[in-house]
Amino acid sequence: MKVIIVGAGPCGLLLATLLAKQGIQVQLLEGADKLDNQPRACHYAAPAKYELARAGVLDQIAAEGFHPGSVCWRKKDGTRIIGLSNRDEPESSVYRMVCLELGRVIQILHDAAVKQETCEILMNHKVTSIGESESLAWVDATLPTGEIKRFEADYVVGCDGANSQVRRCLFGDLEFPGWTWDQQIIASNIYYPFENFDYEDSNFIVHPEDWYMAAKISKGGLWRVTYGDVPGLTKEQYTERLPMRFKRILPGQPDPSDFKLANIGPYRMHQRLAKSLRVGRFLLAGDAAHLVNPFGGLGLTGGIADVGGLYDSLLGIHKGVADDSILDRYSEVRSEKYRTIADPLSTANFKRLWEKDPDTTAATDEFFKILERAAADKEFSKELQKGMMNLRHDFTEFWHQEGETSNGSAASVGPSKET
């Protein structure tokens, strides 16, 4: 079997690594000349850790990353509304989240992929068109010289992000059902001593206008601050406005000399799901398949869960223990996971920051009531954490017979020793 993957982001590189480890021929085409390093999602929850362990990269991510042990919601003045700690959960547990900048994770995945003999990564190969016959699929890619080159495979997977060319070729430029949030958000990475204000590892500030998230994302004191601003400006204008916004919203009302800005990335948020994640020999995963807002980390973790499911589906076909129809199940199940988990939860997570009165939300929000119970009941708290695994699905259940799997008990998955 040969698989073409379009897009060298976390999903594309993870899928390439998993497939190539099984001896499947993989060609990964990326239109850019270098790997992406913009500030994006950086929290990896249980389903993501599970798949990263299967790929043999969790050891390194865990060693370099930061393992947050608490999360809370606060009023703008810093008053704690509600929170939850999982410091009792060992860092090696699949249920203990790990944080590492996405750019670094992408590099780790890239290094793992290129070590595989059956994996070839081609940068500066921009896919422009696609096609298929009864026996194979192909993509046409434009090279820096202007030459157009055709690549053929049994299957093509679009992991090429929100603006996916593969999805556009399948459904049209404007066909991505869903909607766009009115709010403009800015993701920034900064060094600022939030600890001096008794902030916990992850903090969500509830306010009608000045809502934001402040989360520690590295051992070295780097924090992700994601906040709102007026829409329609350039990155340069948002960068100019950042000191004013931080003076208004952050604890201590810092001056520019009080914090160090590492990077900044403005972007719009969407809740969208492609009409199908499978059309013939073409498949979609990650942001190419669906989009959610970043609050709760369901976009990146959900995309990685896509990859795990697609890997098991393609592996079943490769091993002869599943037929082509398993890819229809992939599309159906992953779409349902989006509709029933990722979309509603991420929507509620974001609205919780600004939709209700921060002085009364603790008493009226059902989610906060659940957290209050979890804070007092450790067993219930553990069950709540395990619930994140519902975002993934074991597609080996659709295999025809017992075959070799790389699955195991989710609760026992720790850092993998594979290389």
Uncertain residue segments: 403-419
As for the CATH topology of the domain at 2-67 and 99-178 and 272-351, it is: FAD/NAD(P)-binding domain
What is the C-level CATH assignment of the domain at 2-67 and 99-178 and 272-351? Alpha Beta
The proportion of residues in beta strands is 25-35%
How does CATH name the architecture of the domain at 2-67 and 99-178 and 272-351?
3-Layer(bba) Sandwich
Query: Whole-Å distance between the termini?
Result: 23 Å
Q: Looking at the chains present, what oligomeric state does this protein adopt?
A: single chain
Gyration radius (Cα, Å) is 21 Å
Q: What is the strand tally?
A: 19
Helical run tally: 11
- CATH H level, superfamily name of the domain at 2-67 and 99-178 and 272-351: FAD/NAD(P)-binding domain
Helix and strand content put the structural class at alpha/beta
Question: On the 0-100 scale, what is the average pLDDT?
Answer: 93
Helix content: 25-40%
Strand order of the largest sheet: 5-4-13-14-15-12-16-19
Largest sheet descriptor:
8 strands, mixed
Shape, per Cα inertia axes: globular
Protein name: FAD/NAD(P)-binding domain-containing protein
Keywords: FAD, Flavoprotein, Oxidoreductase, Signal
Signal peptide: 1-16
InterPro entries: FAD-bd (IPR002938), FAD/NAD-bd_sf (IPR036188), RIFMO-like (IPR050641)
